[in-house]
Specification:
Length: 189
């Protein structure tokens, strides 16, 4: 018996793809006749991708360095936030000792310790906010009340009830202040 090949199937009858003739282009608009041009296009695309990736990496390194420096710059923030109320209480104790007399050894000793403490805080970047007599600034001050005043213009701080602090260029705690509401108005106006 003679062996015969099976009948070709329908999908086997599809002719192989014909290479494009010079001058024709593929569906994506690129010339398919020149493999060098195709490879040059790929090379340009990959070069652009590499440059963008390199720029992104450089930006990442700069951002990471900036965040690291900022973290170091403000590392003491938590400690200083906890020390500020201690300074407040110490100042209250100093004002009570002042009533005993400014020449008392308790007052002079507490004054020296307070000076040391303030010097330490200043060396670590903490700056007190002087508010009395200044224009009220909601970014630095917390208004706890308004009072009429004939001597202080409206919108200025009359007195400070709690000192505010900045840590370098950031607000650590706003100053609690009483703001002038201007001259007292008479009841017949």
């Amino acid at each position: 018996m003679k062996k015969t090949s099976p009948e070709p199937r329908e999908e086997d009858k599809i002719p192989p793809p014909v290479p494009a003739e010079p001058g024709y282009s593929s569906a994506d608009g690129e010339a398919t006749d020149d493999p060098v041009a195709s490879m040059q296009g790929d090379l340009d695309r990959f070069r652009d991708l590499a440059l963008r990736t390199q720029a992104d990496f450089e930006n990442y390194k700069k951002r990471a360095a900036r965040e690291r420096d900022e973290g170091i710059k403000y590392a003491n923030r938590s400690l200083l936030e906890r020390l500020v109320p201690i300074v407040d209480n110490f100042e209250l104790g100093l004002s009570a000792a002042r009533e005993e007399g400014e020449r008392s050894p308790i007052y002079s000793g507490m004054s020296m310790v307070l000076k040391q403490l303030n010097d330490f805080l200043t060396a670590n970047g903490l700056e007190p906010i002087d508010a009395v007599g200044k224009q009220f600034d909601p970014n630095l001050h917390e208004a706890i009340g308004h009072e009429p005043s004939n001597r202080v213009p409206e919108g200025r701080v009359i007195r400070q009830t709690r000192r505010g602090y900045r840590l370098k260029d950031r607000l650590l705690r706003p100053a609690a202040v009483v703001v002038s509401s201007g001259a007292a108005r008479s009841s017949n106006e």
